[in-house]
Design brief:
- By secondary structure, this protein is α+β, with helices and mostly antiparallel strands.
- The protein has eleven helices and nine strands.
- The longest helix is centred in the middle third of the chain and has 37 residues.
- The chain is globular and about 80 Å long.
Amino acid sequence: MSGVGVERTREIADRVERFVRDVVVPFERDPRRDHHDCPKDELVTELRELARAAGVLTPHILADGSHLSQGETAVVLAKTGLSPLGPLACNTAAPDEGNMYLLGKIGSPEIKERFLKPLVEGRARSAFFMTEPAEEGGAGSDPSMMTTTCRLDGNQWVVNGRKAFITGARGAKVGIVMAKADEGACMFLVDLPDPAITIDHVPNTIDSSMPGGHAVVTIRNLRIPADQMLGQPGEGFKYAQVRLAPARLSHCMRWLGACIRANEIATNYANRRQAFGKTLIDHEGVGFMLADNLIDLKQAELMISWCASVLDTGSLGTNESSIAKVAVSEALMRVADRCVQVMGGSGVTNETIVEQVFREVRAFRIYDGPTEVHKWSLAKKIKRDWQKRTNP
């Protein structure tokens, strides 16, 4: 992936940063939120119109439809993450960013025009229907447990099943649905809303940055034209792999930006707050926490850059993205926790975004694969590599 170069990337990133800091941050206390404290679509729409006017809407996809390299995307998406509202405003948020990447890579011209274009233009949100209810034995970190089925009926596929933790399902206009046929997993594009997909429940969750929350849905006799399948029957997991590593990494990019901002807030507090005769920063315990934050933030940045460079060679980067996801999510959790600790009572209030960043990063350690699943996957690779060396 060639990209646009260092200077052009820096120019895009600088414009995004100015927009997020100057325009988006004042909206962080905007009351237009639902009962789960997630931003309402009317707020997202207003922010996106402001981003459009500022020329920073969907900044990682250029006017000709080409995509920044992963290394360049890392620089830009970190800037959008400087506010929890930044990715929504700039149209770099999950799951839309990952869905746009997938459709841009493998969508037919017809699918790109119908489903990708409104996403890139920021006029629609999307949802990815894969995870299923755990209490029903459905797929979670193990996608092979998928219970949602699809069968061919004439020139249509009929899908039935239940899905859970479907981010942004409420209010989405585009859906990507995973189901299994006799041939294996399949992936479909659908228009939303559809009467065959009903939202049963939107649980309260620890995070609150994603419009529509994380819904539990029932899919009952959903009929999808055959030409809305991505690829061929049985290729669903193959295409999911195309999306997987970049989506993991873009989470790291955005939350790196959020933790940079949280650390700025905590640093400002520590340099202003007086206790026991001196500012907090002059107390070794506080100063060392902020020093540790700088170390973890830099390590996270370098880990993201390394993984992005692997993806930019054309590699799927499955193992590398697992390494990066674990390392970055754990490092950012430490950063967010220290920010709360440095700020004391102020850190646990919603007077700043610090407590939200703490909640969001804690959830990040779970979604797109919990730490333990990634480590287990890496351990299996270690074993395979050892077996190859000892049994050539």
